[in-house]
Amino acid sequence: MDVQVAKHCSIKPAAKPQNAAECGIENAPKKKSRTRRGKRGKRRRGKKANEPPPFLPPEAEEGNIEYKLKLVNPTQYRFEHLATQLKWRLQEGRGEAVYQIGVEDNGLLVGLTEEDMKASLKTLRKMAEKFHHSQLKSTYDKNYRLLHALVGADITLLREREVDCDRARRKIAEVLVRKVPDDQQFLDLRVAVLGNVDSGKSTLLGVLTQGELDNGRGRARLNLFRHLHEIQTGRTSSISFEILGFNSKGEVVNYSDSRTAEEICESSSKMITFIDLAGHYKYLKTTIFGLTSYCPDFAMLVVGANTGIAGTTREHLGLAMALKVPIFIVVSKVDLCGKSTVEKTVRQLERVLKQPGCNKVPMVVANPDDAVTAAQQFAQSSSVTPIFTLSSVSGENLDLLKVFFNILPPLSNSKEQEELMQQLTEFQVDEIYSVPDVGTVVGGTLYSGVCREGDRLVVGPTDDGRFLRLKVCSIHRNRSGCRVLRAGQAATLALGNFDRSLLRKGMVMVSPKMNPTICWQFEAAIVLLFHAKTFRRGFQVTVHVGNVRQTATVECLLGKEELRTGERAVVCFRFLKHPEYLRVGAKLLFREGVTKGIGHVTHLLPSTQNHMPDQNRNQNHS
Questions:
Q1: pLDDT grade for 185, boundaries at 50, 70 and 90
Q2: pLDDT at 3
């Protein structure tokens, strides 16, 4: 049956093969051509034969994607079953689901007539309206597990495609179903913004979040800067956060209508939190801290079309890949240069992405259909790398990036988040403030568990290795009040009159039941990415593990005397200044000048081991 349909049906493919090797024709016999033009012509003529047959991957039981052949006049029993199915898909997608209508469960693209498609969309809309008419709101048990989520949903038609079967035109529809926001339980995705200095990162964020195009002289970025010298130089030196919302119908919600941050949160079903990082090399440690500490879901690498791959672009790309953060690329400033220059920059990026060290599959986004496909494939495969070309001044292709963000699904499903919520509370301290009439405030990310107003936690470790008791007075998420904080969410916590001088970046706030331990020494399995000479005992590096950033000394290399570029080993590190709280399995990145390496923590050594002798040894040397 599949073969017959493949012969008689034709459809625009969701993603075209990038090269001959992916099509499986690399070693296929070819008739030799004498001219380059003849080869290109043959490649173009053979392209249609290499298109994939009209079917999608089989439907997965888990996840937020549902295939439906048709939804025409279901019985009441069938309707209730379909509504339950929709609820399950929404929970799997943390408030979002995608319905492919006109597709069988095995992925075969059958299509529907115009009449059946209208009836199916009408049924799907009724399924979403069933949630609207329900009076049942979201409720949680004592462990804050979701019990009911019938809070309303809207549907948005993403795209329609035509299938020609036996000369009969049939349609396939792709529909986004999204829950209406309820009590700040919107879907929140964090996107780290990387790129070389002067590539247009802050300007692009200003245009996206403010809703106004730039004037070509950096007006859009002024609201993002936090310091006077940033405004004067036009260069970001600190980490700032900006938000872009989408409502349940997929419409953009930003500051364009003089909204406040609280109004944006209330109106949004999905929130994109941009982490604007520094591009200049002298602020590299700040950029690394933003990547390791704030746990971004995705990374957006901004490249200027007029400069191409320059400065810290390769460095930032390597950091994102080392930390296994999925990355997509935005080529900005296309209004400053001709079409040939933009194409040259895109080809340069494609060459870098296809190199053995990257092994990525670049995908240039040229229309809304490409943007929908890119968002879905990007979340499913870490090798796919979408490339956008746009302008913050003329607004060219800016809507394609908004479509991408609107459809981009979360990497983790509801089950994984619920498992994290069952664990004890652990909050990473990334920022510390003093707010008038409020007191000490800390900002960071809740790694596990649930945090509520009034909770009593312990914070540490201090310089002498202790954990201090404190109370959470209030919680703010995206600049608006929030009663409950769940695993994976970022927020600021007010601590009242707690002494700010006792706090520092890199600390954790955990449940007293956890009985946290401190760590002076730890072992890590590492790969030395680059070192000018040999890496050996006694070498000092800056270690980044989550929100921890501190200088450490190499105590020993297990089984080896020294390391060279590209070699692996298990290394014992010792912190120099104060103990830290670490987890086994945490990703590790270390650097010192041009020296760079990555790895993960494999073992924590007892806090008393070798610490006091090291202090005595230092005193003897002095």
A1: low
A2: 36
